[in-house]
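Anyone opening a protein record will find just a pair of labelled lines. The record below illustrates this layout.
***
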Amino acid sequence: MNITGKAHKLGDFINTDIHCSGKYLDPGASQDEVIRRLFIEIKPGFSERVGKGDIIAAGEGFGTVSSREDAPTLLRKIGIQAVLAKSFGYLFYRNAINVGLPLVECNTDLINENDMIAIDLQTSVVTNLSSKKRIESKTKYSAEILHILEDGGLINHLTKHGGYAI
């Protein structure tokens, strides 16, 4: 599975409350209203600048704190196709796989805003196409997880195969 997209740079310890703060998750708020507020406290206008197929490049501890599936779901909804970070919160990591959002641990210091990035999930190689630098990844997906990601998440995988299949 190969991914190519433009990078949006974020810093360290971007927790799920910063992704989509609970204060914006009013029972009457539409998903589009919540999406417009993604990362508003650290990167105003983020959702307007994201294009389909873009990639987030963050620092340490991306997606820590909460177990809400909203954070990775909303990132997929606005067109983010992968997140690169130095490390991830465990629950965010699991929720991201479940919704079909690939996460890759790597040194994001080698990535700048708007760099074009290529990710090969089979070989775990990230390439900054803008600087022509190869970035080694710590992420090694199993064949089973790659199939889940290729199918767009766990529910899509189960639906497509009538149950769990590798």
Remarks:
- Residues 106 and 137 are 5 Å apart (CA to CA).
- The chain is about 30% helix and 20% strand.
- The longest helix spans residues 70-78.
